[in-house]
Design a protein that fits this description.
Layout (H helix, E strand, L loop, with lengths): L3 E5 L6 H12 L5 E4 L22 E4 L5 E3 L2 H11 L10 H16 L2 H6 L15 H21 L10 H15 L6 H11 L2 H12 L11
Parallel strand pairs: 1-2
Antiparallel strand pairs: 1-3, 3-4
């Protein structure tokens, strides 16, 4: 049994679950996946006694007496401390600084995009009318993809796969699902993810799920 347990919820809808799961799976960090069913509530009853916020993701380290880490950015830094050789962050200092800035921006921003366009990887693409604030979020994401890929040369945002790709993967998923932006950078980032075995595994799992969250079924 691995020492790390990652608590997540339904893969089709849970963008925060995707971020840490994808990071760990893509970097071959061993963990036990613990699925807690989504209820549509902000706090998930099944997380009571596991995470003080009642939310996912939550990483539990059994080797540290059941230590729980419950914020995505905190989990990312904890994984970097446990597995410095795995490449959670880029190798070069300048790239690490940019990656952390981009992850922080994503974690605290893009509220309109997240609020108006729930992640739903299982549904066919649909064109959705969105607010000016959401369009501004999409434009910013597109600019991040373009500038990052131009600077790094790809295939991922800062060259090789790292935390920044995991955090922006659900942003890309929303853009594709709701036909929000058609650009070379969007297609390039999508191609890189689609060739990633961890992404393929997650996507296959979303197609196998049968649970429905009515509020996230738009269009």
């Amino acid at each position: 049994m691995t020492d790390l347990a990652l608590y997540i919820t339904n893969k089709n809808y849970s963008s925060w679950s995707l971020r840490i799961w994808l990071l760990m799976r893509a970097l071959d960090i061993p963990f036990e996946e613990v699925m807690v069913p989504m209820t549509g509530e902000a706090q998930i009853p099944g997380m009571t006694g596991i995470s003080p916020t009642g939310k996912v993701p939550c990483l539990v380290d059994r080797d540290q007496g059941g230590l729980a880490i419950w914020e995505s950015t905190a989990i990312t830094e904890y994984l970097n401390e446990l597995f410095p050789e795995c490449g959670v962050w880029p190798a070069q200092m300048r790239d690490r600084a940019r990656a952390r800035a981009l992850v922080s921006e994503m974690h605290g921003g893009f509220a309109a995009l997240r609020g108006e366009c729930p992640m739903n990887m299982r549904r066919p693409p649909v064109t959705l009318a969105v607010s000016d604030a959401c369009r501004a979020n999409v434009a910013r994401a597109g600019a991040i993809f373009a500038s990052s890929l131009d600077t790094s040369g790809g295939p991922f945002l800062l060259g090789r796969f790292s935390a920044v790709d995991a955090f922006y993967a659900p942003v890309l998923s929303r853009i594709l699902t709701y036909n929000l932006l058609d650009s070379a950078a969007v297609h390039a980032f999508a191609d890189a993810l689609e060739n990633l075995p961890a992404w393929q595994e997650w996507r296959a799992a979303t197609l196998a799920e049968t649970a429905m969250v009515a509020a996230d079924e738009l269009g």
